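Hey, can you fold this one?
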Amino acid sequence: MLLVLSPSKALNFAEPPIQAAVTTPELKDDIAILAERAKRLRPFELKRMMSISDDLARLNRDRFQAFDAASDDGLQAIFAFNGDVYRGLQGRTLDKAGLKWAQDHIRILSGLYGLLRPLDVIQPYRLEMGVRLKTRRGNSLYDFWGDRIAQALNGAGEGHKHHQIVNLASQEYFGGVDEKALNWPVITCRFLEEKDGEARVISFFAKVARGLMARYAADTKAKTAEDLKSFDYGGYSFRPEQSTDHDWVFQRPQPPPARR
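Sure. Predicted structure:
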């Protein structure tokens, strides 16, 4: 079983509290090609492409200029990503056994890196999967990655007894996976908040819940997707009556607004 997550725009490159192994991203040849293309982007192009401010455009231009695809400098992805999903995952609090499980069972999609293991070293960057960046392979990152991410997922599953992919990524990022090229069935999880008799997806809560499920899987050393039906972190529970074989729904009462 593999769990697939989105990356995060928010980064934290502070030293983690635990020493952990370091691995190298698998798709390094493709990363180098894409990084060289990104280095040619000017701030106004980055601003327009990613709908970001002038300051962020300049910051990311500088990041691409400093990016070295051959370097081992940086920080492991599970420690560096710091957005809502990773607030749920809390990778910096995993022990060594939890990190080992995550390395074997969790994969992180990325616009720049394609596919990452949790302990793969990354450098600061921002490049959303959904951007329209023209390369020799096409007009978007979906074109650039083609079936490469799917083939990498197939390779990651070799040796696993249970052939399942649990999709905990956003539509934008899982769109970078050519599902026709996958050898495994995909189960997509949705997380709903119930209020006044109606249930809906609320983006912030859903992102945190994806990380919470990955943390639950690491804590319990889940072996199959079926094990995830017992997920109860954050007050969620599996709703079989709302689910299908490939679309699983987890629901909870919507929390009250946070006090300020």
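Residues 2-253 form one domain. Let me know if you want another pass with a different chain boundary.
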